[in-house]
Amino acid sequence: MRMSGAPATPAARPTDAERIRSILAAAHSMTLITDEQRTEVRHLDGGDPMGRLHLHPTEPGGDGEYRPTIRLEFTDVAPTPVRDRVRARVTVLGRLLTPYVDETADSTCVEFGRAVLETGHGLADVGLEELEATRPDPLAPYEAGMLTHLLDDHHDLVTLLLRLVRPLPTAAVVRALPVAMDRYGITLRLEERRGHRDVTLPFPSPLDDVEQSGAQIQALFGAARRSSHRNTLPA
Fold first, then answer.
1. Average pLDDT in the 33-61 region?
2. Is the pLDDT of residue 235 over 70?
3. What domains sit in the chain, N to C, each tagged with a CATH number?
């Protein structure tokens, strides 16, 4: 039976390109590896590192010319204290067309090879054209603050959202925490004594701007309040 106010269709999910662009947009650090150096860059300050790298398509006939390889590694870590906090990893592979200098404000030209997204569902490759045509999720720079605020200051609302989970949580669930939020909805991690599962509660419609998030989040809370199910599981 459908709940009042609950969507009847499965939750939409970000594409692989959206996940990659969103992880890059929210990144505060990255590991940069070339033929000659390995550098931990820790001062991205949430700025999209693609602004510091000018990505070029692969040039035909360039195999005979020496171009140092470059590998950029990013780790997407959940901002809340859930189990298995690493949500995804992104690796951008290419070859340097100009030297990389960390201290300079100039961008580095890179011949793009591929971008690889690694999640619990496996690996996915994304090409340059798709990556450049995709915008980051509008919530990506704000997600960490929004989730920690929800957990720290509105703990009771996390428990309230459990009313929308289908199938209903069982007594095996010992803790529920918000693990992700994007333009499509809020994802809760239901932790059991052995293992866990993630459940996405979709917004009534995908967000186009962070300013729309307040109304959409409140719509989820409203749907949960209208649900007759009373859940007492810990959060």
1. 77
2. no
3. 16-132 (no CATH), 143-226 (3.20.180.10)
